Amino acid sequence: MRGLNRWKSLVVTALAAATFSGVAAASLPAEDTVKIGHYGSLTGSKATFGKSTDNGIKLAVEEINAKGGVTVNGKKLKVVLVSDDTEGKPEKAGTVVTKLITRDGVVTVLGEVASSVSLNGAPVCQDYGVPMITPSSTNPDVTKVGDMISRVCFIDPFQGFACAKFAKDDLKAGKVAVLFDQASAYSVGLKDEFNKAFKELGGQIVSEQVYSEGAKDFNAQLTRIRESSPEAIFIPGYYSDIANIALQARKLGMKMPLIGGDGWDSEELAKNAGAAIDGCFYSNHYAPDQPTEIIQTFVSKYSKEFGGTPDGLAALGYDAANLLFDAMGRAKSLSGADLAKAISSTKDFKGVTGTITINSQRDAVKPVVIVERKNNTWAYRATIEPKKK
Fold first, then answer.
1. pLDDT digits 0-9 by tens, 233-284
2. Which residues, other chains included, contact 222 with Cβ-Cβ below 8 Å and sequence gap of 6+?
3. How far is CA 69 from the centre of its chain?
4. Which tens digits make up the pLDDT trace of 114-128?
5. Domains in the chain, CATH or no CATH each
């Protein structure tokens, strides 16, 4: 099996803490429990992503255990969650996932958020025959790793199309500039899909500039963009860089709206960017102010448990865990092949982030939500449905 011996040879020293609705895993017989793993950026520059996802998963675990556990072949099993930290570093993903599988004994893995990290963790799951569901890695290559890998989020071809359609039809922008992170699989992939869709819709990309994650000075790129006179700027990066970009753009007198992808979804962005992101937009998986019962129930439970309003990452973590529990109930067994088959056959699963159907590529077919920054909050602006075939 590809890469298996290499991963088996890794030395893993850190033990992740297992959480189980406030009950220690050792207090129940092993045959009455089932372990699931989560690998995410619990620390590091994208820590809000990992923590929100982990909280969403924990909430789903607490709820299923309060009902007696997940039902597998008529038997109730309490769920034990084991979470481990990648620090948002792709090079750590293989070690962390190997540990979850070989030392912690999880039957399935949830994670990661960042596509670059998932692309390093997914091959390990595939080699060991352990199903993996990524809550929010949108790069199409993630599920192409193999039949063990699925996701509950939309993918970048559709997200790029949705952002392009919103810019062209809603904002009436005919000319757009693009600023992207040249080393990020997520950023490059989303940029490519946006450019393709925007041109097909009759728009023009007037400038394309690059940056590297963690950069502090964007004035050179923004000055070149300003010279091209765009009506909007598409920035498919992560929240950790967007605040500086927005602040510097406004200092240069650039008042056009900035548009981003779901990588913007963090409370840290508004905290650091302030008024610089007023009138800006990004694509997301849900908006907490949408008035549906399933969303408002989730928002209420999450806020009571963890405080604050749950972001899209929390909602996706919650949906990923609940879709997994649903698949466990339909699977012939919890063997890798049986569980992966049940996950990939999911149809019309009612999640917080929309009704989810897993297609033949093990990608989720679902709508994109556009949110807008106004009145010091992110508010629902539009829903863009998947293109009909």
1. 999 999 999 999 999 999 999 999 999 999 999 999 999 999 999 999 999 9
2. 179, 209, 245, 248, 249, 252, 254
3. 26
4. 999 999 999 999 999
5. 4-154+292-358 (3.40.50.2300), 156-284+369-384 (3.40.50.2300)
Amino acid making up residue 300: S
Against a cut of 0.70, is the pTM above it? Answer: yes
**170: burial class by Cβ within 10 Å (0-12, 13-18, 19+)?**
middle
C-beta of residue 358 within 8 angstroms of C-beta of residue 150: yes
pLDDT digits (tens, 9 = 90+) for 37-55: 999 999 998 899 999 999 9
Q: What's the rounded Cα separation, in Å, for the pair 37 and 104?
A: 8
The span from the CA of 145 to the CA of 119, in Å, is 8
Each residue of 176-235: pLDDT tens digit?
Answer: 999 999 999 899 999 999 999 999 999 999 999 999 999 999 999 999 999 999 999 999
Residue 14, Cβ neighbours under 10 Å: how many?
10
The answer to whether 365 and 347 are in contact (CB under 8 A) is: no
Cα(201)–Cα(93) distance, integer angstroms: 38
Amino acid at 382: A
Whose tokens are 């890998």? That residue is: 149
Q: Which residues contact 96 (CB under 8 A, 6 or more apart)?
A: 12, 39, 84, 85, 86, 121
The 3-state secondary structure of the chain, one letter per residue: CCCHHHHHCCCCCCCCCEECCCCCHHHCCHHHEEEEEEEECCCCCCHHHHHHHHHHHHHHHHHHHHCCCEEECCEEEEEEEEEEECCCCHHHHHHHHHHHHHCCCCCEEECCCCHHHHHHHHHHHHHHCCCEEECCCCCHHHHHHCCCEEECCCCHHHHHHHHHHHHHHHCCCCEEEEEEECCCHHHHHHHHHHHHHHHHCCCEEEEEEEECCCCCCCHHHHHHHHHCCCCEEECCCCHHHHHHHHHHHHHCCCCCCEEECHHHCCHHHHHHHHHHHCCCEEEECCCCCCCCHHHHHHHHHHHHHHCCCCCHHHHHHHHHHHHHHHHHHHCCCCCHHHHHHHHHCCCCEEECCEEEEECCCCCEECCEEEEEEECCEEEEEEEECCCCC
